[in-house]
Write a structure and sequence with these properties.
CATH superfamily: Uracil-DNA glycosylase-like domain
Strand order of the largest sheet: 3-2-6-7
Shape: globular
Number of helices: 6
Radius of gyration: 15 Å
CATH architecture: 3-Layer(aba) Sandwich
Low-confidence stretches: none
Mean pLDDT: 96
Distance between the termini: 40 Å
Order of helices and strands: EEHHHEEEHEHEH
CATH topology: Uracil-DNA Glycosylase, subunit E
Helix content: 25-40%
C-alpha cells in the first residue's frame, strides 16, 4: 500500500555550499530518524568521508557539521509523493522540491544525483524549471549491491 508522504527533513546547506547532492526521497529509516541517509546500511556517509579524507561522522550534529565544512548541500528531488516503504520504484504522483531555496542562497556550482531515480526525476521535474544539468552518480543505497564501497568512492571522487 502506498501513501502520500510529505518530505519531513529540511535541506542542509549554507551560503558557502558549492556542491548539491540530491537523493530521491527519504527512506523509512531516514523519515523515522529525521535525517538524510539514516539507514545504517546506506553507504552515503562512508563514501563522502572517504572522498573528503576524514572520519565518518556519526551523530546528526556531526553529519551536519561535516556537510557544511565540506561545502556540501544535501536534499532530495521530491517534496511529496506516494511511496510504498522505501522503494523508489513505487514512487507515484511526485511534487518536486523547490530547489531555488538552495540555489539562490548558496554558491552551488555542480548538482549531483545519488542514483538513477533521483537523476531521472530531476531531469523530468527540475531541469525544465532550473535549467541546470545534473551529474549522475551511482546510488549509495544498499539496494545497489553491484557497487562495492571502493567502487562507489572512486565514482564519487568527481564531486571534488
Amino acid at each position: 500500500m502506498s501513501d502520500t508522504i510529505i518530505h519531513p527533513i529540511q535541506p542542509i546547506f549554507n551560503e558557502d555550499s558549492n556542491i548539491l547532492i540530491l537523493g530521491t526521497f527519504p527512506s523509512v529509516k531516514s523519515r523515522e530518524g529525521q535525517f538524510f541517509y539514516h539507514h545504517p546500511q546506506n553507504r552515503f556517509w562512508k563514501v563522502l568521508a572517504n572522498v573528503c579524507e576524514t572520519d565518518v561522522p556519526s551523530s546528526i550534529e556531526e553529519k551536519t557539521q561535516f556537510l557544511l565544512e565540506n561545502k556540501i548541500a544535501v536534499w532530495d528531488v521530491i517534496q511529496s509523493c506516494e511511496i510504498t516503504g522505501s522503494s523508489d520504484s513505487s514512487i507515484r504522483n511526485v511534487i518536486p522540491n523547490d530547489l531555488s531555496i538552495i540555489l539562490q542562497h548558496s554558491k552551488v556550482e555542480n548538482i549531483f544525483a545519488n542514483g538513477n531515480k533521483s537523476y531521472e526525476l530531476y531531469n523530468k521535474y527540475c531541469l525544465p524549471v532550473i535549467g541546470r544539468d545534473i551529474i549522475k552518480l551511482p546510488s549509495t543505497s544498499p539496494a545497489n549491491a553491484s557497487f562495492s564501497l571502493e567502487r562507489l568512492v572512486e565514482a564519487w571522487k568527481v564531486i571534488r
